[in-house]
Amino acid sequence: VIPKWIHALLSSEPVIINGNGENTRDFCFVKDVVRANIKAASATLPPRSALALNVGGGRRISLTELFDLLAALSGQNTESGKASPRPNFGPARPGDILHSMADVSAAEAEIGFRAQCDLETSLRETLEWFASNRPRQ
Predict the structure, then answer these.
(1) Which of 72, 91, 103, 107 has its CA 20 to 30 A from that of 10?
(2) Distance, C-alpha 62 to centroid of its chain
(3) How many Cα atoms sit within 13 Å of 92 on the Cβ side?
(4) Cα(42)–Cα(121) distance, integer angstroms
(5) What is the dihedral sign for C-alpha 119, 122, 125, 129?
(6) Above pLDDT 90, what percent of the chain?
(7) pTM for the whole thing?
């Protein structure tokens, strides 16, 4: 959802949130996911053992809060004379989980993983990358 919303914000297109926007998710920056995979790949485990570990950012955020943060970081809500963008709310997706947050305690205990990247900095970096790599028109 983050790349889709960034593209929409940078292109002045509508952002659609399924449901009322109060659903929460635990977003994890790709740098942290890579770190977790490297830690897992280099962990010393007993022979023939396997682990299933959750990787997450350790913070739950609503989709509306995520949208507001992306809009602020993109500068869309600070341009003089321009109203802050608002998302369009569509129907909820059937079977969608209302709230989710990864329990990363096993990842911390087994491989020493804990997310290091904070959400705002991660979103800013992602937004800057998308802005500088947009197709030229």
Answers:
(1) 91
(2) 11
(3) 10
(4) 27
(5) negative
(6) 81
(7) 0.86
- Reading the block at residue 22, the tokens are 């109060």
- Each residue's pLDDT tens digit, 22-69: 999 999 999 999 999 999 999 988 887 788 999 999 899 999 999 999
> Which segments of the chain does DSSP mark as H helices, in order?
2-10, 30-42, 63-73, 105-111, 119-132
Number of helices (H), then strands (E), belonging to the chain: the values are 5, 4
Q: What is the model's pLDDT at position 5?
A: 96
User: Whose CA is closest to 55, among 37, 74, 68?
Assistant: 37
Give per-residue pLDDT as tens, 89-101.
999 999 999 999 9
Amino acid at 48: R
